[in-house]
Amino acid sequence: MSRALALFWLSLGLAACASTPQSVPPLASARVVGDFDSYTLQRVGIVPVSGGDLPNNEALELQAALLAEFSAGTDFELVALAGEDLAETPPLEPYRRGWYSPRTILTLARRHRLDGLLIATVTDRQVYHPQRLGLQVDLVSAETGQTLWYSALHIDAAESRVRDSMGVWARETLGDVSEASWESMLMSPRRFARFAAHQVASLL
């Protein structure tokens, strides 16, 4: 084999190795305020997930998934708030109301020494096959009540782009994924919620 040909095959091999790690294709959208970096966000509370008529166990699982994914991707000290932490405060229903109660934000911030709140709302949900999940997540400043960062996601397991993205995520998370485990993953609300949480958290 000539030296030129050997270098050619070597370059192809190196290119293949370089392209092997795949990033999970993004499905969520996000926007951030221009002065985001001027805010001090060290301790952030994750409010119990609302919307979508979620049973309590699924709401807790989704909150735990968001906590895990945002913990992995940010430098925040994250605090999972419980339902009783919101007692005697006006409800946070941003998706329905279009605004936040300043009293609720200030009360939670003082009670738990928070710099901000992550508020997640389920906007669409179907747990039978093919699953669907819509999610809106806001990061709100405890100081001003302003939404500093916002993300929205709608995933439908019937769509090939969603299955393809979830497949890459599953291989990164679990390693080798068999056909049987892949099918069970597509039908698992817990896995679907964790994938949704990863999609949203990866944009902050």
Please supply descriptive tags for the structure shown above:
204 residues; alpha/beta; Rossmann fold; 42% helix; disordered N terminus
Structure description:
The chain has 204 residues and is of the alpha/beta class. It has a single domain (25-201), classed as Rossmann fold, CATH 3.40.50. It is 42% helix and 21% strand. The protein contains 7 helices and 6 strands. Helix 2 runs parallel beside helix 7. The N and C termini lie far apart (50 Å). 28% of the residues are buried. The model is unreliable at 1-21 (pLDDT under 50).
- Supply the number of helical segments: 7
Number of domains: 1
Bulk shape = globular
CATH topology heading:
Rossmann fold
CATH architecture: 3-Layer(aba) Sandwich
Give the number of DSSP strands: 6
Strand order of the largest sheet: 1-6-5-4-2-3
Could you name the CATH class?
Alpha Beta
Topology:
Layout: H1 3-19, E1 29-32, E2 43-46, H2 56-73, E3 77-80, H3 94-97, H4 102-112, E4 116-126, E5 132-141, E6 147-156, H5 160-174, H6 179-186, H7 189-201
Parallel strand pairs: 2-3, 2-4
Antiparallel strand pairs: 1-6, 4-5, 5-6
Helix pairs in contact: 2-7
Compact summary:
With 204 residues, this protein is an alpha/beta fold. Helix content is 42%, strand content 21%.
